[in-house]
TrEMBL record:
Pfam families: Peptidase_M28. The lineage of its organism: Eukaryota, Metazoa, Spiralia, Lophotrochozoa, Mollusca. PANTHER family: METALLOPEPTIDASE M28 FAMILY MEMBER, PEPTIDASE M28 DOMAIN-CONTAINING PROTEIN. Gene3D superfamilies: Zn peptidases. Belongs to the peptidase M28 family. M28B subfamily. It comes from the Eukaryota. Residues 163-214 form the Peptidase M28 domain. InterPro entries: M28_fam, Peptidase_M28. Its cofactor is Zn(2+). This is Peptidase M28 domain-containing protein. It comes from Mya arenaria.
Length: 263
C-alpha cells in the first residue's frame, strides 16, 4: 500500500494532477468471527466513514458518478513456478465457469506463477480490464495474471455455495453496496507451501521473503500505481495553479496485507 502511495505522491510532487479522487484506506477484522461471518472492518468502514464521506462531498446521489471501484488485495506475495504447485481443489466446481483460465493453468502445468483477478463480468469489467492491461504492460512477463470473471447476476441459489473461495474477502461488502470491486490474490492456501503454512507459524519472513516473492509483490505495487494513474486521469500541469476537483470515484484496498484505495 505504501509503495503505491509513494509512487502516486512522487507523481503529484512532480506536477501531476488528477481529474478523479484517490483515497487510501486500511481496515482490519476481515476474519473476525461474528454472526456476519467476518468482514467486519470493511463493513464498518463503508457504513461509518465511506458513505458519509461520499454523501458529504458528492451529495445523496453520488452513485451517479459511477465509481471506478475498489481493488482488494488479499495475500499477494506467494509466487511458485514449480509444476503442480497450484492446487485446484476438487470441490471447486465453479472452475468449470472459467474454461479459458483453466486451460491456461493446465498449459502451464499448474504453476503458481500468477496473480488471480476475481471480478463480476457485467459490473466490474472496466476496473478488471484496466488492471489486467496495466499488469501486462509491466516488465517481468514470468509473473502472469489469470482472470476469473464471474457471471454474478446469473449465479443461482443452488450453485452459490460453490463460489465460497471467490467470496472470501472484503470485496463482497463493496459488491453488496453497489460499488465495483475486484479481488486480487495469489490464492492463499491453494499454492505451494501455503497449503501447510497458511495461518500457521511457518508463514513467516524466513519462508516468504524470497527474491522472487519480493519481485512478484513489486510488480503488483507498480500495477496498482499505474492503474490509479490511468483511472484517476492523471495529467501534468503547474502544481501551483492546478485544481483537483474529481467527478468520479474509484477505490483500491489492502488491509493487514490488504490495501484499500479509492479513485
Amino acid at each position: 500500500m505504501l509503495e503505491s502511495l509513494r509512487q502516486i505522491a512522487v507523481g503529484n510532487q512532480g506536477g501531476k494532477r488528477r481529474n478523479n479522487t484517490i483515497i487510501y484506506m486500511a481496515f482490519d477484522h476481515e476474519e473476525y468471527d461474528s454472526l456476519d461471518n467476518g468482514l467486519i472492518g470493511s463493513k464498518f468502514a463503508i457504513e461509518q466513514w465511506l458513505m458519509p464521506w461520499l454523501t458529504k462531498n458528492y451529495g445523496q446521489h453520488w452513485e451517479t458518478l459511477k465509481p471506478h471501484g475498489i481493488i482488494v488485495l488479499d495475500t499477494v506475495m506467494n509466487y511458485n513456478s514449480s509444476a503442480q504447485s497450484q492446487i485446484i481443489p476438487p470441490e471447486s466446481e465453479p472452475l468449470a465457469y472459467f474454461p479459458k483460465t483453466v486451460s491456461s493453468l493446465k498449459s502451464d502445468q499448474f504453476q503458481g506463477d500468477f496473480l488471480a483477478a476475481i471480478f463480476r463480468q457485467n459490473l466490474d469489467g472496466n476496473l478488471a480490464s484496466t488492471f489486467n492491461s496495466e499488469w501486462l504492460g509491466e516488465p517481468q512477463p514470468e509473473f502472469e495474471i489469470e482472470k476469473f470473471g464471474i457471471d454474478y447476476q446469473n449465479v443461482s441459489d443452488d450453485t452459490w455455495n460453490l463460489f465460497n473461495d471467490f467470496f472470501r474477502s472484503d470485496h463482497v461488502n463493496f459488491w453488496k453496496t453497489n460499488i465495483p470491486a475486484i479481488f486480487i490474490t495469489d490464492s492463499a492456501n491453494f499454492r505451494g507451501q501455503m497449503q501447510q503454512c497458511y495461518h500457521n507459524a511457518c508463514d513467516n519472513l524466513t519462508n516468504i521473503l524470497t527474491d522472487n516473492n519480493v519481485r512478484f509483490l513489486g510488480k503488483t505495487a507498480d500495477t496498482i500505481a499505474a492503474t490509479l494513474d490511468k483511472l484517476s486521469e492523471a495529467y501534468n500541469t503547474n502544481p501551483s495553479s492546478a485544481s483537483c476537483n474529481g467527478d468520479f470515484i474509484s477505490i483500491l484496498r489492502i488491509s493487514i496485507g490488504l490495501m484499500l484505495v479509492m479513485i
